[in-house]
Design brief:
single chain; two-stranded antiparallel ribbon
Length: 484
């Protein structure tokens, strides 16, 4: 197999799988099995892509280019950098776990559901691999369509309200980004991200940044987050937090920072202030949240702020830590939402006042939550510690007070995560917790354990992503290679 073809395979294989599932009149079990097979095939092809990637280089690799609209200079141009390769890996692994969860719980309207999950997989991979602005926009919009339907059809009692908020926020951001793309492309004479020049336009920078800030999300553009994360099915919430939010942060890195260096410098203090506000505000809301999903949702807001701090610090350490933290937090939040789903299936609720005492007779559930919770606490030796330490060191190089704000918010993170663990596992048994020991089943373990294994690997060897001593160029060096 040609190495360059792997890039397109990772995009179009799940989309082809979605079309096949929609066309074939299969049973619920057969549909779920076929979707899971496509998802696992995606993981296999990504492993092959990673094995063939030359980590000693810093440029774009495994690229494919074909003219799309010749008069406008638009082409189907895809490829991967070192940092985007890891985000593609996060996507396919998290989506495989989410798809497996949907299969395990037996989602109704299975053909529609699993087809949408596969479409979401292909579109999200396309976002991370696109090297043309219009191709990026096409995948960015295609990524949102299945999310609207998944929340609106399979969500909770207030799913329509959550969907409407999600649509309003994301469509506003998408329209601004489309206007910025058209203006940039017509002025530059090309929409290509690799060949296109940098721009000094502050208005275009703001058009991109608003779209990405909504998707990340950053304060104060997070109004869609609480309802969407609570009302979506647990596996869709896992994807929203673990993967989709990273698409917004990736857009900041790949487009806003790389293509608009002068506006980035001009607005640096403003963005750092918004990122710090998201970090502190999200941490406070997570600490006050009364339910399992609320803590994860607001902690995701806080983590997006922390990652944005690293990105806009503009230092090597900040870039390296931000990319590492994207992958680490993606695995953490995906695992926590799937664990939250397991808790809700056993107790019918995620409210802390009705939970408690679930460690008794449920050793597998308690172990999973403790391991993921401890890693998310950023204890020394964990992947989160490595990512957050690099980010704080990077922003310290910019100004010490940004690092002080980040360190204070990280203390809050330890408090709300310990509160979550205690409320679910160790306090007095709530009224909804059954007496019998309903521990997580082997099928559920098969979904979460690989995510935890990835976290443990990153904890043991964070240099696999963050430092050139293991895989060639660091993310910072790769990012700098994009400036033209």
């Amino acid at each position: 197999m040609n190495a360059t073809s792997l890039t397109s395979i990772l995009i179009w294989l799940p989309i082809a799988g979605a079309l096949l599932i929609w066309l074939l009149p299969l049973s619920r079990y057969a549909t779920g099995s076929l979707a899971l097979l496509f998802s696992l095939a995606e993981v296999g092809f990504w492993i092959e892509q990673a094995a063939r990637f030359d980590f000693s280089g810093s440029g774009l690799q495994m690229e494919e280019r074909a003219k799309w609209f010749g008069d406008l200079g638009v082409s189907y141009h895809v490829g991967v950098y070192g940092f985007s390769l890891w985000l593609v890996g996060l996507t396919v692994v998290a989506m495989a776990a989410a798809t497996g969860y949907g299969f395990w719980v037996g989602r109704e309207r299975s053909r529609a559901y699993f087809g949408l999950m596969l479409l979401l997989t292909g579109a999200t991979v396309g976002v991370f691999e696109a090297q043309d602005l219009l191709v990026f926009y096409a995948f960015f919009e295609a990524m949102l369509i299945p999310l609207y339907i998944l929340i609106g059809v399979w969500g909770g009692a207030r799913r329509m309200e959550a969907t409407i908020k999600f649509v309003i926020y994301t469509m506003a951001g998408s329209l601004l980004m489309l206007a910025a793309i058209v203006a940039y492309g017509l002025k530059a004479g090309t929409f290509d991200l690799v060949d296109g020049p940098t721009s000094a336009s502050r208005w275009l920078f703001l058009g991109f940044m608003l779209a990405f800030a909504i998707k990340a999300p950053l304060f104060p553009f997070h109004g869609w987050l609480p309802d969407a994360y609570r009302q979506a099915p647990p596996e869709v919430s896992a994807v929203l937090s673990g993967v989709i939010a990273k698409a917004g942060l990736y857009g900041m890195l790949r487009i806003a920072i790389a293509k608009f260096p002068d506006p980035t410098s001009f607005y640096r203090t403003t963005v750092l202030a918004l990122a710090a506000a998201a970090l502190v505000y999200g941490s406070l809301l997570a600490f006050r949240s009364a339910d399992f999903r609320g803590v994860i949702a607001y902690s995701s807001l806080a983590q997006s702020g922390l990652i944005a701090l690293g990105l806009f610090a503009g230092t090597d350490l900040g870039f390296d830590g931000a990319v590492l933290q994207m992958v680490a937090h993606g695995l953490i939040s995906t695992s926590l939402f799937l664990i939250a789903g397991a808790v809700e299936r056993r107790t019918t609720t995620g409210e802390f006042r009705l939970l408690g005492g679930m460690a008794r007779g449920r050793p597998a559930l308690a172990t999973l939550l403790m391991v993921v919770g401890v890693i998310s606490l950023a204890v020394p030796g964990s992947a989160s510690f490595a990512g957050e330490f690099l980010i704080l060191a990077g922003v310290f190089q910019r100004a010490w007070w940004w690092s002080a704000i980040g360190a204070g918010a990280i203390v809050l993170a330890a408090m709300y995560m310990l509160r979550l663990i205690s409320a679910v596992l160790h306090e007095a048994r709530g009224s909804t917790v059954p007496d019998e020991a309903l521990d997580v089943r082997p099928g559920e373990l098969g979904l979460v354990v690989p995510l935890v294994a990835g976290l443990l690997f990153l904890s043991a060897w964070p240099a696999g992503i963050s430092h050139h001593s293991f895989f060639g160029q660091s993310p910072a060096a790769t990012v700098k290679s994009q400036f033209k």
